[in-house]
Design brief:
The complex is a heterodimer of chains A (about 150) and B (about 525).
Chain A (H helix, E strand, L loop, with lengths): L11 E5 L3 H12 L6 E5 L2 H8 L13 E4 L8 H10 L8 E5 L4 H9 L4 E4 L4 H18 L7
Parallel strand pairs in A: 1-2, 1-3, 3-4, 4-5
Helix pairs in contact in A: 1-5, 2-3
Chain B lengths: L1 H49 L7 H105 L4 E4 L5 E4 L1 H7 L3 H4 L11 H14 L1 E10 L5 E12 L5 E10 L1 H53 L5 H32 L5 E4 H11 L1 H7 L2 E4 L4 E4 L1 H17 L7 E9 L2 E8 L31 H11 L4 E5 L5 E8 L16
Parallel strand pairs in B: 7-9
Antiparallel strand pairs in B: 1-2, 1-5, 3-4, 4-5, 6-8, 9-10, 10-12, 11-12
Classes of the chains: A alpha/beta (about 150), B alpha+beta (about 525).
Chain lengths: ~150, ~525
């Protein structure tokens, strides 16, 4: 995020991902970025909602500027998490990027119907995966004007 | 009168004969006596000669002898009177015969009268005979008709009995009026008991049976009416009834004639077939599901292996020694190849799950799209693809595009020293379009004609020609999903022609043509 001085400020990203490998890969991909964005991670849907609403152990959680959401999650599905976020007047302003291995048309359509801000299929190839994550980061952090922090 | 005279005559004759024979007996006796006497005389004379002087009183003996002679004569006299009696009898007989003659005269008159009567009768007779003849003809005729009728009736009966289908006639009240043997066999009940009983009581669903014949009475006939006959043993015979009204001579409805066709076997076969179809569908669905799950769910861990071996290679190449570099290299290559295989398998399984309903597709357009996608291969190989005018067919457009792309891709890929020349044509044969993709490539040994269409079957090393061997398997699956066939005609070194057919009217193959959005 650019400040008035023109400097880009690091942003807070919440990654909702149950696969530690993907967490690491995403972290690696973001590490190569220009900014040290703060990446928080939760591994299921219930945790994600608790984190966003600062409930329980997440009372001190930072409200993220961007959410990277996997669809296939234990306990609470990514689709349910998306629905809850977009139904919440306080949370729906936060851009949600669905980052998933699913290529199902049904999932893509459903996600956009539930106001996902974009849908990205995880590339199978490492290089492409890193490129994709970087592209997402670049776009949302450097190109897009995010809503002001509340 | 006449008879009595005869009786007399017949009685008299043996008497006469008897009289004659007794006279002869008397004579014979007499002769015997005379012989005895002669013998006695001889003895006497020899005695006289012997005792010549002594015997003087032989005179007495002589007198006695004369007496005997006289008796003999008397006897002869008796014989004469006997003869007279006989003659008298003969006379009486003659009289009787005379009487008989007179009677005969009378008889003659009677005869004449009778003849007259017979004459008259003769005349009548000819008339009667004529009538008789006609009557005879008529009787003959009737007899013949009757015989024919009897034969026809017997024939019909035999036909009814020969029928393996239980046949029955039913009265308006629903009573059985006649059955054949097959009905007895199906119910286990004798004809005598069946006749007069309620038709409906021999079925598992009597109410349905009742509705059946009532419908026949109401509508004139019933077709393929499904019922089940219950045998006394409990055995059930599934049948289809065909029934129709039958009328008497006067045109009045007499009842319903119903024929049952045993479909137990057919039903069993149908059930078996349905069961197998269901099993096949289930096993197909399972297979589809398996292929999908295997390819889809394998992706995740595979992505991890591939990603981290790549990451390892990126970060540590040249830092862990030559061996480590080589090992990492194989790991990266293996993971990458496996990703391709899994992706191919996924693509193969998607032919079924992601297929769309067939629509009218212009093959000219489809081939242009395929060629555009193959531009790189065309440029690299210096190949040329030509085609005849191509038809519009009913197909899933994406999949048909894939078929052309795979076949053209192969034709461009498997070329020899000559730059590839590929020609596509289509002919209409027996309700289907037959497409041919002909190339001048390396050709295929005909022994591999089947194998090349199987999943991951390859005829070359990856170094010679890259690829997993999924292309033709997918192509075959798509063509078969459209109700067509695919085959190859080729010879090593002489190019190949791949043929595939598409029916002009695409039949939807059950769930094969189901559109699916799940992935």
């Amino acid at each position: 995020m650019e400040t008035n001085s023109g400097q880009v400020q690091p942003i807070d990203i919440l990654l909702v991902e149950d696969n530690p490998g993907d967490v690491r890969l995403t972290r690696e991909a973001l590490r190569d970025g220009k900014l040290l964005n703060r990446l928080s991670t939760v591994t299921d849907g219930q945790q994600a909602i608790a984190f966003l609403r600062k409930q329980g152990s997440y009372a001190q959680a930072i409200r993220p500027d961007l959410i990277l959401l996997d669809l296939n999650l234990p306990r609470k599905d990514g689709r349910e998490v998306l629905a809850e976020i977009k139904a919440d007047p306080d949370l729906r302003i936060i851009p949600v990027i669905v980052l998933t291995s699913s290529q199902a048309e049904q999932d893509i359509l459903k996600s956009y119907n539930m106001h996902a801000n974009c849908y990205v299929t995880k590339p199978v190839d490492l290089v492409k995966f890193v490129d994709a994550v970087k592209a997402v980061e670049d776009f949302w952090v450097h190109i897009v004007k995010l809503p002001p922090r509340l | 009168m006449l008879q009595n005279a005869g009786d007399l005559a017949l009685a008299g004759v043996p008497d006469l004969a008897l009289g004659r024979s007794s006279a002869e007996n008397a004579q014979r006796t007499l002769l015997n006596i005379l012989e005895d006497f002669a013998a006695g005389k001889t003895r006497l004379e020899s005695g006289q000669r012997a005792i010549l002087n002594i015997l003087d009183d032989f005179d007495a003996e002589k007198v006695r002898m004369e007496g005997a002679q006289k008796a003999t004569l008397n006897i002869l006299d008796d014989f004469v009177s006997e003869k007279t009696q006989l003659e008298a009898t003969q006379g009486a007989m003659m009289n009787i015969l005379t009487d008989f003659s007179e009677e005969k005269g009378h008889l003659g008159e009677i005869q004449r009268a009778a003849w007259n009567i017979l004459d008259d009768f003769d005349k009548e007779k000819s008339k009667v005979e004529l009538a008789n003849q006609q009557l005879g003809k008529e009787i003959e005729e009737r007899k013949r008709t009757g015989e024919q009728l009897r034969k026809a009736s017997l024939y019909s009966r035999n036909l009814l009995e020969a029928s393996l289908d239980p046949l029955v006639t039913i009265s308006r009240e629903g009573k059985i009026t006649d059955v054949n043997q097959a009905t007895e066999l199906a119910t286990g009940i004798a004809r005598q008991q069946l006749i007069g009983s309620d038709f409906s009581m021999y079925f598992t669903e009597p109410e349905e049976a009742r509705k059946g014949y009532q419908q026949a009475f109401a509508q004139g006939s019933v077709r393929d009416y499904s019922l089940a006959i219950r045998h006394t043993s409990g055995r059930i015979t599934e049948v289809l009834y065909n029934a129709a009204l039958f009328k008497g001579e006067d045109g009045k409805i007499e009842g319903v004639f119903a024929a049952a066709r045993d479909i137990t076997q057919r039903k069993r076969a149908e059930e078996e077939l349905a069961r197998q179809a269901e099993e096949l569908a289930r096993s197909n669905a399972e297979l589809q599901q398996f292929a999908y799950v295997a390819s889809h769910d394998l992706q995740e861990p595979l992505r991890m292996v591939a990603s981290f071996t790549q990451l390892l290679a990126q970060r540590y190449e040249g830092k862990l020694g030559a061996d480590a570099d080589e090992f990492i290299g194989y790991a990266v290559d293996g993971a990458r190849r496996m990703q391709v295989l899994v992706n191919d398998l996924l693509a193969y399984s998607r032919v079924g799950t992601r297929g769309k309903e067939p629509v009218a597709v212009d093959c000219e357009k489809v081939i242009q799209t395929a060629l555009a996608d193959l531009r790189k291969a065309l440029e690299e190989s210096g190949g040329q693809v030509t085609h005849d005018p191509l038809p519009t067919v009913q197909a899933d457009e994406t999949q048909l595009g894939q078929v052309f792309q795979n076949l053209l891709g192969n034709a461009l890929k498997f070329h020899g020293t000559e730059p590839p020349r590929v020609h596509v044509s289509a002919r209409q044969i027996k309700g289907e379009w037959r497409f041919a993709v002909r190339d001048n490539g390396i050709g295929i040994d005909p022994q591999h004609n089947e194998r090349i269409f199987l999943v991951f079957q390859r005829l070359h090393t990856r170094e010679e020609y890259p690829g997993t061997g999924i292309g033709l398997a997918i192509t075959k699956k798509i063509v078969e999903r459209h109700g067509g066939r695919i085959w190859v005609e080729s010879e090593l070194g002489k190019g190949s022609t791949f043929y595939f057919s598409l029916p002009m009217k695409v039949v939807t193959h059950g769930n094969e043509f189901r559109t699916s959005t799940t992935d």
